[in-house]
Amino acid sequence: MNRVFNFSAGPSMLPLPVLEKAAAELVCYEDTGMSVMEMSHRSPAYDAIIKAAEATLRTLMNVPDNYKILFMQGGASTQFAAVPLNLMKTGKADYILSGQFSTKAYKEALKYGDAQVVASSKDDNFSVIPQTTRESFRPDADYVHVCFNNTIYGTKYNYIPDTGDIPLVADMSSCIISEPVDVSKFGVIYAGAQKNMAPAGVTVVIIREDLLGNARPETPSMLDWKLMADNDSMYNTPPCYSIYMLKLVCEWVRDLGGLEAMKAHNEKKCAILYDYLDSQDYYIAPVKPECRSMMNVTFVTGDADLDKKFASEAGKAGFSNLKGHRSVGGMRASIYNAMPIEGVEALVEFMKKFAAENPKK
Ligand SMILES: *Cc1c(COP(=O)(O)O)cnc(C)c1O
Fold first, then answer.
1. CATH class of the region 258-357
2. Which residues pair with 150 in a beta bridge?
3. Ligand 1 contacts CB of residue 248 (under 6 A)
């Protein structure tokens, strides 16, 4: 069977050369005589893998020396709790609501302290990114939390909020390594790996060192960033195979030219879709142009039955997982790093054909 163009929001497409490399060494990794899946995480071979994963990601993202990179478990959703547990000192934290995941993060923080919504685009159905200034935040807040790319709605921050001295915490699950970011502007960046970096199972946390060591006493050991940092992400068995895959993906990105090259590739891909969407009126793109995501492109026909038919016919034609998130409907094309240009070009051709064959009543 041929591989399809997989537009899934996550877990999502992985680069074919990465899958092929993993397949080639699946049974026997280098001269170890065993699979990476079978190795002790304390073995020299695995130690080299996890260190290379960390080093390659660090170089790709240009992570400054005073930041730790942690490989954790439980997905980005577990970090919704880890963030307040590790950072709430005064107990105050400011949240910007730009979609469903940031709302979940906020609700989780409410369990631990005085989390406050300081800006929200809920009234705009999350079709825009809320605007903030330094004055939007409480001066004594322990941190400000944002979701940088809103996977479900297809919006992204095109600027870094100015929080002054308050640490900025960003969920970058669906945009990490899609383009360069200035890590030094953030206190913490976290991301579930299954959108753009690896199969599910590993969560990356990048944290400025001076923010470590403030975990509340009741913090579960497994969520204590300092304990994880002190143990090089090996306090217990890490998600070994996902970390190995993350290493392969980061090497693939590096060999293609790094994050500048990814940005050019992703800008080109999303422009093909957005230019088409803006050139016609059969499909509607709900997101304001200045807030559009490069990774998750949402659109609707305006007719729920047609949307359903679109997703179903697209699936049969080899374009998988175009149905929008169950909470918003419509369509969503997730076009992470691994999606080739040809996938997006072919999708636009399919969209044209569908529009011609299914006139609106
Ligand atoms: C997918 C996603 C999550 C949830 O990630 P899990 O790893 O499933 O917990 C959180 N935030 C964003 C932005 C996401 O895209």
1. alpha beta
2. 155
3. no
